[in-house]
Specification:
The protein is built from 20 helices and 15 strands. It is globular and about 80 Å long. The chain has a five-stranded parallel beta sheet, sandwiched between helices. With 489 residues, the protein is an alpha/beta fold. It has helices at 2-13, 30-33, 46-53, 63-66, 74-82, 86-94, 100-106, 118-121, 129-143, 166-177, 194-197, 206-218, 235-241, 270-282, 287-290, 308-319, 340-348, 415-419, 451-454, 459-488, and strands at 158-162, 181-185, 222-224, 244-247, 253-254, 267-269, 300-304, 324-328, 352-354, 357-363, 370-381, 387-400, 403-406, 410-411, 446-448. The relative contact order is 0.12. Helices cover 38% and strands 16% of the residues. It has three domains: 9-26 and 40-143, Alpha-helical ferredoxin (Fumarate Reductase Iron-sulfur Protein, Chain B, domain 2, Orthogonal Bundle); 158-251 and 412-488, FAD/NAD(P)-binding domain, CATH 3.50.50.60; 257-406, FAD/NAD(P)-binding domain (3-Layer(bba) Sandwich), CATH 3.50.50.60.
Length: 489
């Protein structure tokens, strides 16, 4: 009887998708949000979060979890939220993710969990999973439910992690929980990697990242910022100092475009532009911003590219007070790699998209004054499965541009050269070669995870890789300790 009553109560709490529609948190007015770098949407309130969670169908095969790289227990924490058991919902979401409130903000849910929601397939509109995830963990921080890292009993072994982005921070947390001394080395003066300096505040406010970093610092993880491996220490120095090393540098080398005039003043890489903007948000002195070199104010801005980084650039330029902002992309809207939600947000904020347009040259010497482009048409699919763009003859046109931002993606840097470590093996794409059974590189005890292995990818995949590599490193370190004990005996 009691079990039947409980099941009946659960059914009453769930399966509301027929009666309740899909609802996202309201966005601030486009004109108002273009004036600042605050997040563009309000947070769901408790009632709205509970209502959206109640729309979950609790299906037998939860495609939302299957298509989440972390395999988060999404239906479980939606049910707990719908039932008003919010602390339990937070604890459930925290089981599989070290940064649920960050994923709730920046994951492309439309391509992952929400895009694969069963009720989305039935025409009822997906549960707004990301918004609920953000609400759950933000509430947990406010209520003091986010507990300190549970540091394990000391094992007397240390780990060095190169890179303080999402993969490195995730691995650092798990390894500290395992009782290891953890040192994190990063070239920037703040931890967080692209979470801190690459993603604008209107998508991810920086205090959200900094409180995660502080939690790790409070757990005894030592951060060495402003530290360049190869300059401040060699790879061999770090290997001598630590029992295992993790390389989680990400990929930062901007892809270039080979057209005449690309070296003109006023043509800048996307990351340089975004880092300068984020540093200003922290209150740092940024000479290249103050001089106007990396500042869009009053300028005609053209961004070349169609990924999420391009969307970050166009929307940042709007907030800096650009006179006009255009995005040139060589394919059409359907075939662009960036989030469609981000495209819509950009359009609302005044960005003009010039589809099927490929740059031919940057005009102007010594300073850029325009981008000459050619109309494109889509041909047969290429290796990516998308239609390959082909130039349409005699279709050139010019777009005025005082600031041209190259947002064509990122490639790995030459880590063997930078680290002074020729034995570090890379593949033909320049990413680190690893044994995928152990995530170890060609060097014993040196592991790698995140974008430096898989290429430029999503934050959620970096978190997944950080979680996985921590397990492999733990196995390696235990075996190393056993061997040392046997030798000592």
């Amino acid at each position: 009887m009691a079990q039947g009553a409980a099941m009946a109560t659960e059914k009453l709490a769930m399966l509301k998708f027929v009666d309740l529609g899909q609802s996202y948190p309201p966005k601030r007015d486009a004109g108002a949000r273009a004036e600042d770098f605050d997040e563009i949407s309000d947070r769901l309130d408790g009632k709205a979060a509970q209502a959206q969670s109640a729309r979950c169908s609790q299906c037998g095969v939860p495609y939302c979890s299957t298509h989440c790289p972390l395999h988060n227990h999404i239906p479980d924490w939606l049910r707990l939220t719908a039932e008003g058991r919010l602390r339990e919902a937070y604890e459930m979401s925290n089981l599989t993710s070290t940064m649920p409130e960050i994923c709730g903000r920046i994951c492309p849910q439309d391509r992952l969990c929400e895009g694969n929601c069963v009720i989305e397939f039935s025409g009822h509109g997906a549960v707004t999973i990301g918004s609920v995830e953000k609400y759950i963990t933000d509430t947990a921080w406010e209520q003091g439910w986010v507990e300190p890292v549970a540091v394990g009993r000391s094992r007397g072994q240390s780990v060095g992690i190169i890179g303080a982005g999402p993969a490195g921070l995730t691995a650092a947390e798990y390894l500290r929980m395992g009782g290891y001394d953890v040192h994190v080395y990063d070239r920037y003066d703040r931890a967080g990697g692209l979470l801190t300096y690459g993603i604008p505040g209107f998508k991810l406010e920086k205090d959200v990242v900094m409180r995660r970093v502080k939690r790790l610092e409070d757990a005894g993880i030592v951060f060495h910022t402003g530290f360049d491996v190869g300059r401040d220490a060699s790879m061999e120095d770090l290997r001598d100092k630590h029992d295992a090393i993790l390389i989680a540098t990400g990929v930062y080398k901007a892809r270039d475009i080979k057209v005449p005039g690309i070296g003109a003043d006023g043509v800048v890489p996307a990351l340089d532009f975004l880092v300068a903007s984020n540093r200003k948000g922290f209150g740092d002195e940024v000479p290249d911003f103050d001089s106007g070199a990396l500042n869009a104010q009053g300028k005609n801005v053209v961004v070349i590219g169609g990924g999420d980084t391009a969307m970050d650039c166009v929307r940042t330029a709007v907030r800096q007070g650009a006179a006009s902002v255009k995005c040139l992309y060589r394919r059409d809207r359907i075939n662009m790699p960036g989030s469609q939600r981000e495209v819509l947000n950009a359009e609302e904020e005044g960005v003009e998209f010039v589809w099927l347009s490929g740059p031919v040259a940057v005009e102007g010497t010594p300073h850029a004054r325009a981008v000459r482009a050619s109309r494109m048409r889509l041909g047969a699919p290429d290796a990516s499965g998308r239609s390959a763009p082909e130039p349409d003859p005699d279709s050139d046109f010019s777009v005025p541009a005082d600031l041209v931002i190259k947002a064509l993606g990122f490639d790995p840097e030459d880590l063997p050269g930078a680290f002074g470590c020729d034995d570090l093996s890379v593949n033909r794409w320049g990413t680190l070669r690893v044994d995928h059974q152990s995530m170890m590189t060609s060097l014993d005890g040196v592991f790698a995870a995140g974008d430096i292995v898989r290429g430029a990818s999503l934050v959620v995949w970096a978190i997944r890789d950080g979680r996985d590599v921590a397990e492999h490193m733990h196995k390696y370190l235990k075996a190393k300790a056993r061997t040392a004990q046997m030798i000592a005996a």
